[in-house]
Design goal:
Elements lengths: L2 H11 L4 H9 L2 E5 L17 E4 L2 E6 L3 H7 L6 E5 H7 L5 E4 L7 E3 L1 H25 L1 H8 L1
Parallel strand pairs: 3-5
Antiparallel strand pairs: 1-4, 2-3, 5-6
Helix pairs in contact: 1-2
């Protein structure tokens, strides 16, 4: 059982513990399956995530271990490690997420939940930038001019 599994389980048992899961999610690394080079459109740059269509929904698959990813797909699957907060920032608003699909403690995120996480990530970035500016007198001086 991973730390994320424990946090999911804790959140199911006690709703007041759910913020612990979200904090851990945003600060964890996930393995995202990507489309193989030959399957991509030649005009597309960078790696494209593999999206899964099911029940009229589009899912971004996320796994907290390589083993879970390869159990779901196979060992030849290409993937990228990505921080949870980066996934949140980059994710489209109409995509669902499937975390650790096929495991006992899989979790699905709907677009509203993802939008809420986007707000949290944005607020955290803004707060961090304010704190950095306050800690750096030179930046403060430029703001005043």
């Amino acid at each position: 059982m991973t730390k994320l599994d424990e946090a999911i389980k804790l959140g199911f048992e006690d709703q007041t513990k759910q913020p612990l899961f979200y904090d851990l999610f945003l600060n964890s690394i996930f393995y995202v399956p990507v489309i193989k080079e030959e399957e991509k459109d030649k005009n597309e740059e960078g790696e494209l995530p593999l999206l899964v269509e099911a029940n009229d929904k589009t899912y971004l698959m996320l796994f907290d271990t390589i083993k879970r990813l390869t159990d779901w797909a196979d060992e030849k699957t290409n993937y990228l490690p990505v921080q949870g907060h980066a996934i949140t920032e980059l994710s489209s608003s109409n995509i669902y997420w499937a975390l650790n699909y096929g495991t006992e403690l899989q979790k699905f995120f709907d677009p509203d939940e993802i939008k809420w996480l986007k707000v949290i990530v944005q607020q955290t970035k803004e707060d961090s930038q304010k704190q950095s500016a306050e800690a750096d007198p030179e930046q403060q001086q430029y703001k005043e001019e």
